[in-house]
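Quick one: structure for this chain?
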Amino acid sequence: MITSPILPLKTQLNDRYRILRPLGEGGFSQVYEIDAEGATKVLKVLSLSSFSQSQVRQKAIALFQREAEFLSQCRHPGIPLVEPGNYFICHDDDQMALHCLVMEKIPGVTLQQWLQQEQFLDQERAIGWLRQLVNILAYLHQQQCLHRDIKPSNIMLKPDGQLVLIDFGAVRELTATYLRRKNDSTGTTIISAGYTPPEQIEGHAVPQSDFFALGRTFVCLFTRHDPLSLPKDPKTGQVIWRDRAPHLSPLLADLVDHLMAPIIGQRPADCATLLQMIARIERHLWLQRWVPCLNWMNRDRSFQPCRSRRRVLKIGLAGFYSDCHNEFACVSTLSRRRGGAVSEAMQRSGVAN
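Got it. Here's what it folds into:
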């Protein structure tokens, strides 16, 4: 909730919007649910009273305007819809300027709220969520933009299972000018403790910085602990978290650690590469689930699925992924040829349950 609301209930703005109730506050803004000529939407208001220095205030206004401009140009199901012209400035009773942004109201809860309500995150759902978020990031990065503030409280889960990335107040356009200036002190550093990567703290955010925050987000979801509260390896600085998520496949845990690598070059190169890695892990988990069925079906032992951990050690990760692809194709062929035998095998092995 909002401790000191800028706008009281039933306030009318621009003869179009009426405040219904406060939703919350974070960073330097307050968020309200509003009636927009019969439609329920969200109003984000910049809280300028938070800033004592005029230079900082102007920077906050510039960031708010950047968020409004960016969102008005986006058309993606994983990003809140903002119609052109939905950024405006009005004045309160003291004639203080209020910078306002009207956007789509996303139904559901944040992943932070989801954790507080439930919740155990299983592998299947985690992989689906990871894929959704990487697809959203792919869209952002294609627009030459970085989110710079990924964390559970900035991800909405809709009733239909769709994830939506919110709070673009830290969004940064990745232009040539920015790349030239990123080594000086003119940039804006956005920090969410426990989620922000080292290079972003130093003002050097790059696309892989979003990957780091994504990895930390899944550590929080898997362990139900804030990353700051987890111990760190004294040699590498990596968060020690796997012992709190023993249900995870080692390959999925490896991917999360890969996202959080301290050195930028050790993280996935881009979203396309990351999506390929997710698909390979999915194939492996699919095969792992079907091994009992295949052992029963393949009585002549002509097809033997690889034993993942021994195989990885023997032929390396790239070779293992190649084997997974071949076995996936082989399993599909077996399933087509034997038809009803698959269902029978599932029942005998208990996979169907």
